[in-house]
Amino acid sequence: MTAYTCPNCQTAEMRPFYSVQPVPVHSVLLLPTREEAVNFPTGNITLGFCEHCGFIANTDFDASLHDYSARYEATQSYSPTFSKFSRRLATDLINRHHLHHKRVLEIGCGQGEFLTELCELGDNRGIGFDPAYVPERSPANTDLITFVVDFYGEKYADQQADFVVCKMTLEHIDQTAGFVGTVRRTVGDQPDTVVFFQIPNATRVLRDLAFWDVYYEHCSYFTRDSLAYLFRSQGFEVLDVWTDYDDQYLMIEARPGENAAQASAVLPPEALDRIRADVAHFETRIPAWIDHWRGLVRDAAAQQQRVVIWGGGSKGVAFLTTLGIRDEIEYAVDINPHKNGMYMAGTGQQTVLPEVLKGYRPDLIIVMNPIYCPEIQSMIDDMGVTAQLIPLEFTSD
Length: 397
Fold this sequence. Notes:
Blueprint: E1 14-24, H1 34-38, E2 42-50, E3 56-58, H2 80-96, E4 103-107, H3 113-122, E5 125-129, E6 145-148, E7 163-167, H4 176-187, E8 194-200, H5 202-207, E9 220-221, H6 224-233, E10 236-244, E11 249-256, H7 269-302, E12 307-310, H8 314-323, E13 331-333, E14 350-352, H9 357-360, E15 364-367, H10 373-383, E16 388-391
Parallel strand pairs: 4-5, 4-7, 5-6, 7-8, 12-13, 12-15, 13-14, 15-16
Antiparallel strand pairs: 1-2, 2-3, 3-9, 8-11, 10-11
């Protein structure tokens, strides 16, 4: 294997500890035919661990394979559970940072749902950057928000803001230090500007053996400590780091620091020990855990039980491709109407709306994200579907 230098600290080589291949290079592009889905371009995942800063990355990642266009469909706002969380988060940020009549900039804004909440709830003005933005899909009030269909970068340094948001984007960036350094330079030395990032929480992925949260688009994985290290190393003062949404999301708030790169950007030995232990736990136990889920699905198929997964996004693609599941599962269920009739990259299951279950009558529903189980149970109860819900969650038994 070619040595891979950590892009987070740019100091140490990364040690590989988990591999899955081949996998689709995209998980949430809208694929209208099964043929396109099963023949979708693939790449390899090899997670590596940095013994210097605790960063985890796919050392086989190739950014040139990606297509962040109008076909990219990652909207979660159709879920009442997620929408409630999003509104609570927006309200909290507005209250804590006095975001009223301010200018908000979002990097990787998707279809503008969260930026719209920040602007409407706080009477703010916004600008959002995303190459996959589709005006017809946006809920935004364009009197309040301007959208730029492009990747954010230093060419937009003239677009200053009081509050900078970047949700669920950093994990897609392979050159993490370069990206956060760009944000630091474009923010400049405005001491009152706060930067807020939200990303998946790698500690939960490691401890819960969540292989379904390891997929090609996500090339970068952070814990609290490695994320804080990155921001300090790029000249930010870290204000707070916390988790939310059942510990699935990791949040950080920072503002420009006095020094270009703070001397405090050192990962304490005890922090590195914690991450190292979590990596060892994942590396040791993941083979048996994957076998467990593969066996559960194949045993159900052998007993002629009908199994569906609930979640036609990245988790579903990672779950199916890691296990090598095709014919054993016919459908993926998703409440997002834009995914209806599309096909899962790599394995080719058709994505359908929940109403299909009334006629299909599944025996088992494997739920890709346990936080949605109450919402899903209520929906299937209303439809008279009596399938057993099986959430993807780790148990030590």
